Amino acid sequence: MYYSVDDVVSNAFKKRMILDSFFAFNCSGTMKVSTWVYDKGEWYYVSSSGSMIANDWVKDNGK
């Protein structure tokens, strides 16, 4: 399990830049994986490694 370094998370999730990749953490600080996150009017997919995928196609639920 991975946790955010911040104790305070103000939104439904917190976005962090780590080694040139964005990662999303939920309110408890746990890193989100293999799911969709909504940020500033845009949807992003978070891979199984936790990094946010942008500017690429993602096959989700067979579609």
From TrEMBL:
The keyword Repeat applies. Cell wall-binding repeats lie at residues 33-52. Keywords: Repeat. It comes from the Bacteria. The keyword Repeat applies. This is Cell wall-binding protein.
